[in-house]
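[Protein data]
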Amino acid sequence: MRIEVVLGTGVGETTLSAFDNALVKAGVHNYNLIVLSSVIPKQSEVIRVVRYQASHNEWGHRLYIVKADVRSELIGNSIAAGLGWYQLEDGRGMFVEHDSIADNIEEVEMRVKNRIRKSLYDLCINRALLFNQDRMQMSLSSTEVKDKPACALVVAVYQSEDWKVEL
């Protein structure tokens, strides 16, 4: 299975429309998002892409994802969302999702990175797996709230699926 990780930041008149703007920038906006827990199946390849390449024929399809997002309307906030993942040789593994709000970008990104590292370590320990930091990967999205509400988003896309309608 190919799992694509995409980022997006957005702004809007409300935090909801900022979230939608971030979805548009990531390419996952015309789907019904089905949020999964964070398990990566065997034989999976997790790759970073600039934008999810959605098909126009998939409007309204289910999109199975793991996501981290954070939204704020408080001007001056710095926000960050991140996904971290850890995989074994056979491709199986797990994602962790974290977000934070702080006074500056450096602080908020550091918080999210530290939480991702700690969570992946704990998830490995919980599964009796030896943690090797070299296997840890992460993607972060961050922005500052300026004059409009903002959102930072990271999405891991598993697959799209049509609604099977029985006639």
The chain is about 20% helix and 45% strand.
